[in-house]
Amino acid sequence: MTQGPADAATPVVSDFYDRFPYPGDPLQDGPPPGYNWRWFVDAAYSAATGSLPTARVNGEPLRILDAGCGTGVSTDYLAHLNPGAEILAVDISPGTLEVARERCRRSGAFEQAQLCIENRSLLDLAGEGPFDYINSVGVLHHLKQPEAGLRALAQLLKPGALLHLFLYADGGRWEIHRTQRVLSAIGAGTEAEGLRLGRQLMADLPAQNRLRLNYEQRWAIDCAADANFADMYLHPQETSYNLERLMAFVASADLHFAGFSNPGVWDPARLLNGELLERAQALPAEAQWRLVEDLDPDISHFEFFLSKGPVQVQRWDEDSAVLAARGCRNRCLWGWPGRALLDSDMAPLDLSAEGLSLLEALEQANPETAIGQLPLDWSDAQTASVARELQRQRVLLLRPA
């Protein structure tokens, strides 16, 4: 189903992606490699709220929107990580959607979920909601009017549901913006000639030139595919943000900021220690984020969750709440079963013997078994303590009784 353009940039952006279907990840047979936990809805809700989403009633499927799916990389993961879900994936570029359908056909995504891939603008989806989860990665910053896009997505969210966004940040795109302006000034264009000239520019600049170094040290591998290079340096429509403008952007759609989906990046402990860290940690959360933004000019994007209405965060401070909760293992772990794991962010995670025992008991139990009813020869206090640590590590995902 094809809708007419609903944003001033739609025709030129659609044509651009027809020439350079993005992202340029290769197609392959079988499920996608690895995972991205932000596309596993249970893990996303747990990260944003501390709890699994509300249990489905009457067997209703989870409803997911992939708004601006491109060549289907995100759609493929959404289908495999959320089996049985009802997924609508849309994009304005017919060329990219041909790749998306082929990717999902070869991977088996159509067998994993109720998947529909359509040539539509995210601005033209009135009546398709409400959705339990909306994913829109690298899309709104390519609209002429990003605020209209955010409002359109907000109208499709269920109350309390999550929207995951990825938007460009000013600081880490300093060199990219200058390269874009150079290529525009010399009339490189946004077709094959622009691609040739862009690659020639990166090869011909002096070896110690800042733009060339930034490309070679940070982006060359990502930009090996022509579509990825074009998306970064030749795109005809792009907006980026700093934290202040980002928060104003969120407020423009009457949505609530529910946290970064890469929170470690925004932790001042990544950059400071000692007295400086103590002073930083005494600041309110948003002031800490602004401090990190100033200290790290390499941050190239924002990735975060939004909600319709404030989220209720479950803290799990009380043993009784942990013991009464139902739980499941986070499926986004490398190395399971075993103690030496990579966590959901691909960082080493060495489980304790007690943690491994609890997870093994959980795997063998009925899904409705409360944590406190698992067959473990422990005191309630020990069971709650081990479960709480696993929850903190995002290995164990909990739902309140």
Could you characterize what this model shows?
By secondary structure, the protein is α/β, with parallel strands linked by helices. The protein has helices spanning about 10-20, 40-50, 75-80, 95-105, 110, 145-155, 175-185, 190-205, 210-220, 225-235, 245-250, 275-280, 285-295, 320-325, 355-365, 380-390; strands at about 65, 85-90, 115-120, 130-135, 155-170, 255-260, 300-305, 325-330, 340, 350, 395-400. The strands form three sheets. Strands 3-2-1-4-5-7-6 form a seven-stranded mixed sheet, with helices on both faces. α7 crosses α9 (about 210-220) and α8 (about 190-205) packs across α10 (about 225-235). The two termini are about 45 Å apart.
The fourth-level CATH homologous superfamily of the largest domain is Vaccinia Virus protein VP39
Largest beta-sheet details? 7 strands, mixed
Mean pLDDT: 95
Task: Give the strand content.
Answer: 15-25%
Main-sheet strand order equals 3-2-1-4-5-7-6
CATH architecture of the largest domain: 3-Layer(aba) Sandwich
Element string (H = helix, E = strand): HHEHEHHEEHEHHHHHEHHEHEEEHHE
Number of helices: 16
Q: How would you classify the helix and strand content by structural class?
A: alpha/beta
**Total number of strands:** 11
Q: What's the structural domain tally?
A: 3
CATH C-level label of the largest domain: Alpha Beta
Kindly, what is the distance between the CA atoms of the first and last residues, rounded to a whole number of angstroms? 43 Å
**CATH topology of the largest domain, what is it called?**
Rossmann fold
What are the segments in which pLDDT stays under 50 over at least 5 consecutive residues?
none
* Proportion in helices: 25-40%
What is the radius of gyration? 22 Å
Global shape: globular
